[in-house]
Specification:
By secondary structure, the protein is an alpha+beta fold. It has helices at about 1-20, 20-65, 65-85, 90-105, 110-125, 140-145, 150-160, 190, 200-210, 225-230, 235-240, 255-265, 270-275; strands at about 165-170, 180-185, 215, 245-255.
Length: about 300
């Protein structure tokens, strides 16, 4: 009886030895993914390290850096990068990183205290009857953000007033409504004597951003000025390529802030320009001379 038990037990033992472990089969896909990820990361590290080292060697060759210093620097960079990839950090590095995160979490946002101090000073000055502000504090910054051609445009608007502008709109037959084809076409660039006429739309956008001009929906009272503008080649070209084309008349003018800026910062009359040093007039960005267009007023 014992022999049969032993034989049966042995047979079961032999069968279990022949069957693969089910846990290994379940873990196999995960092991394959880990191996693939490790290979990919190692390949990426190899390529990036080679690029870094090659770039460092080229820069050293250009600057004539000694070879021992170059080798020491490249070796240190490789060691640091390996430690970063493997996640190896010293206790000091880990402690410093935790301290930095804790300090950043509790520290106030940069500049808040100084901004509130400046705001308090601003309110104090507004209540001080003895404080005299000669010009708006934004004027110096605005001058730094203007192109020379933008100075010409401001001078034109200050001397000759609002300028006409048209939008060309078009539509398809039997389709209600219209679509914008060419917005904001003007003669401001040639009338102001701008050097870079293709940049006039960007100039106008910048002047609008600075609060110096605004784009008005209301047209000017003189229809002749729009007739001259609508006869310009760019307007005619936009209308020819559009079905059911029409123009929408608008205008561009200085804001009150822009008018104050021009009056304060720009030499508007010719006599004042002539009195300036030679590097500003007459060949400077606000030169008085400009081309004459049909319908435009006389040079100021």
């Amino acid at each position: 009886m014992a022999d049969s038990v032993d034989e049966r037990t042995g047979a079961q033992r032999d069968g279990a030895a022949e069957r693969p472990d089910a846990s290994l089969l379940l873990a196999a896909p995960g092991l394959v993914r880990l191996a693939a990820a490790a290979w990919w990361r190692s390949a990426g590290w190899t390529v990036e390290t080679s690029i870094r080292a090659g770039d460092r060697v080229v820069r050293a060759a250009v600057t004539g850096e000694p070879l021992p210093m170059l080798l020491a620097d490249v070796g240190a960079n490789v060691r640091d990068y390996v430690r970063e990839v493997l996640g190896i950090f010293d206790d000091d590095d880990r402690r410093n990183g935790e301290d930095d995160r804790e300090r950043d979490a509790h520290a106030p946002r940069p500049g808040v205290v100084s901004l509130r101090k400046r705001g308090a000073e601003l309110l104090r000055q507004s209540a001080d009857v003895r404080f005299d502000e000669e010009v708006h504090p934004a004027f110096p910054r605005i001058l730094e953000e203007l192109a020379p051609d933008e100075g010409r445009i401001l001078r034109l608007l200050a001397l000759e007033g609002a300028q006409p502008a048209v939008d060309v709109r078009g539509g398809k037959p039997l389709v209600p409504g219209s679509q914008m084809v060419a917005p904001g076409l003007t003669m401001i660039g040639p009338a102001a004597g701008c050097r870079y006429l293709e940049r006039v739309p960007a100039y106008l956008n910048n002047l609008y951003r600075l609060g110096l001009i605004w784009f008005l929906r209301e047209p000017l009272e003189d229809p002749v000025r729009y007739q001259v503008l609508e006869a310009q080649p760019d307007v005619l070209a936009a209308m020819r390529g559009t079905g059911r084309a029409r123009t929408v008349r608008r205008s561009i003018d200085l804001t009150p802030f822009g008018a104050d800026f021009c009056e304060t910062c720009l030499p508007l009359n010719t006599a004042e320009l002539d009195a300036l040093p030679g590097d500003v007039a007459p060949d400077g960005p606000l030169a008085a001379s400009k081309p004459q267009l049909p319908g435009a007023g006389p040079p100021q």
